[in-house]
């Protein structure tokens, strides 16, 4: 309800005089001032029954409805002037000659029947006094107020939302109670995603997000944030996979599922070692396989073949056909000890003329098959047979004897 102070302020304007009454009192609503009403016959016993606060009968006909017709039979004071401002408001039941109700008269000259309004000030001239008008500056005789907040629809900044305080913080003409951006001026109230939050202040203007949650406080709501738990106001997404660059496990490779089997912070789609934790992603030979899982980390080996399955790739394995995880090469000839025909002598050619498994550079009889350290065996290319075998046996026996004798 608009307070009396506001009503007094409104009375100071020129329009208030135009719509205010000139009567000092009009209880019987006949538009005749109390001083111009006929004088009551106070000697009439009926009139003597209606008295003022001092016990004296009223002397003006204004205290009775149609004094000329009914005399003092129909007093209009008391309950018909509940607000005590001197203007009538209510109904009078008139009885017929038979004592039964004949008609009802409605007194309605008080423009605020339940609020003291002696001057009947009505700034907007809608026949509702300023002190009880729910829109004292805007004519609204029907006083419609669907949200029941005491402010009429024609002047309510939130006509569909109860808002008795009528707060309006951002100055856009829309009350805080119904403004979809109460702290940001947006007179048009645009709301593209229809989530009740205006586009101007919506952390996800194109995605319905009434909760407006923003876990990382980057100004982008969780419902549309490419990195919900990493502050990312720019929302860059170089690979277009829907995961922001600042949290993408593969920022340069499309990888919507963000799988990371080895849990090293690098997605499988771009991990140089997807099965081995390798956060550094070093690749010394630049062959596309990280050093931690490259079977030849210092040799370009995109095929990653490992025929002997010893964990060392064929292109760098000193024994590519024999398992040799240690890769020892005592003589440094590039051939591993486990497959070197001469493991104690450098022999990169690995020639073995007699095919006895000992390289020529360390075989004392490179032309004799199986001579071993004692030089015995069958000359390479010599036909077999019993005679030849006997000859070789005798020779071997002789050499053995000489060896045993120290000769």
Please provide a written account of the structure.
The protein has 4 helices and 4 strands. With 407 residues, the chain is mostly loops. A hairpin with a 5-residue loop joins strand 1 and strand 2 (101-108).
Write the layout of secondary structure elements.
Blueprint: H1 4-11, H2 14-19, H3 67-70, E1 89-95, E2 101-108, E3 368-369, E4 378-379, H4 386-405
Mean pLDDT: 87
> Could you describe the largest sheet, including whether it forms a barrel?
2 strands, antiparallel
The beta-strand count equals: 4
Low-confidence stretches: 1-17, 373-404
What oligomeric state do the depicted chains represent?
Answer: single chain
Percent strand equals under 5%
Helix/sheet category: little secondary structure
Trace the largest sheet across and list its strands. Answer: 1-2
Q: Over all CA atoms, what is the radius of gyration?
A: 56 Å
Order of helices and strands: HHHEEEEH
Number of H- or I-type helical stretches:
4
Range of helix content: under 10%
Characterize the overall form: rod-shaped
């Amino acid at each position: 309800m608009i307070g009396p102070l506001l009503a007094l302020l409104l009375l100071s304007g020129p329009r208030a005089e135009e719509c205010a009454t000139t009567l000092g009192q009009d209880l019987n609503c006949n538009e005749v001032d109390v001083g111009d009403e006929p004088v009551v016959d106070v000697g009439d016993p009926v009139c003597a029954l209606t008295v003022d606060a001092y016990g004296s009968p009223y002397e003006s006909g204004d205290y009775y409805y149609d004094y000329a017709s009914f005399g003092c039979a129909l007093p209009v004071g008391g309950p018909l002037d509940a607000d005590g401002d001197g203007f009538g408001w209510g109904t009078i039941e008139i009885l017929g000659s038979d004592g039964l109700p004949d008609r009802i008269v409605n007194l309605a000259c008080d423009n605020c029947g339940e609020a003291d309004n002696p001057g009947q000030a009505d700034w907007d001239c809608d026949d509702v006094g300023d002190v009880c008008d729910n829109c004292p500056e805007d004519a609204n005789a029907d006083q419609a107020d669907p949200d029941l907040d005491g402010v009429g629809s024609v002047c309510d900044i939130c006509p569909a939302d109860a808002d008795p305080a009528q707060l309006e913080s951002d100055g856009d003409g829309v009350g805080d109670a119904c403004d979809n951006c109460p702290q940001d001026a947006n007179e048009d109230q645009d709301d593209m995603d229809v989530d009740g939050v205006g586009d101007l202040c919506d952390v996800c203007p194109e995605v319905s997000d009434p909760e407006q949650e923003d876990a990382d406080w980057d100004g982008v709501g969780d419902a549309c944030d490419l990195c919900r738990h990493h502050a990312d106001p720019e929302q860059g997404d170089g690979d277009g996979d829907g995961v922001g660059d600042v949290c993408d496990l593969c920022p340069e490779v499309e990888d919507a599922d963000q799988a990371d089997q080895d849990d090293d912070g690098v997605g499988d789609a771009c991990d140089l070692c997807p099965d081995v934790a390798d956060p550094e992603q070093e690749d010394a030979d630049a062959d596309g396989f990280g050093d931690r899982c490259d079977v030849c980390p210092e040799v370009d080996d995109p095929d990653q073949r490992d025929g002997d399955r010893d964990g060392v790739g064929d292109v760098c394995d000193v024994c590519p056909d024999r398992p040799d995880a240690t890769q020892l090469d005592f003589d440094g000839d590039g051939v591993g000890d486990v497959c070197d025909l001469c493991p104690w002598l450098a022999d990169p050619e690995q020639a073995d003329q007699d095919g006895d498994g000992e390289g020529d550079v360390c075989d004392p009889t490179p032309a004799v098959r199986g001579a071993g350290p004692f030089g015995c065996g069958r000359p390479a290319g010599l036909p077999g047979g019993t005679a030849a075998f006997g000859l070789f046996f005798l020779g071997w026996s002789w050499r053995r004897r000489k060896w045993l004798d120290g000769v």
